[in-house]
Write a structure and sequence with these properties.
The protein has about 170 residues and is α+β, with helices and mostly antiparallel strands. It has a single domain, classed as Ribosomal Protein S5, domain 2. It contains 4 helices and 6 strands, in the order E-E-E-H-E-H-H-H-E-E. Strands 1, 2, 3, 4, 5 and 6 form a 6-stranded mixed beta sheet that branches. The relative contact order is 0.21.
Length: about 170
Amino acid sequence: MDSGITVRAWHAHAKINLALHVTGRRADGYHMIESLAVFTRFGDRIEIELADSDGFSASGRYVSTVPLDDSNLAVKARDALRKQAGPAQTPPVAIRLEKNLPVASGVGGGSSDAATVLRGLAEIWRLDLDDAELARIGLSLGADVPMCLAAKPLIARGIGDELSAVPGFPA
């Protein structure tokens, strides 16, 4: 497909909780938290380009543990954004993940991948969605996704969805 768009790439930053306090647990199983989180320069890499059909592939050090089907958060992010915007505005894309962060290691790798796909696709598809709308879609994918959309030093409360920036924090 001649899209006029070359491959676009984004960095999906690792999330580090510098302080984490569990304040309770909701009936649905989510933990209530207060957390000081920062984001590293290290992380996964996401490449996206318009294609003839949707595709998802992965490479990298931790690729052996990455699901390549619809259970992958990056794929879920694509599908959730497409559902929100409608198929007419969301042509097929090829998503490639370079998995540099270990799966289920507590650094928000999958959530950061999903957040990066949401931002990247909103740009490629030229969707008029503000940060709050992307965060709402992200929260439907997982509690850490809104945090990873921000990708800057912050205080997270609730299940991780109530965010306050920490300006000037050395990170």
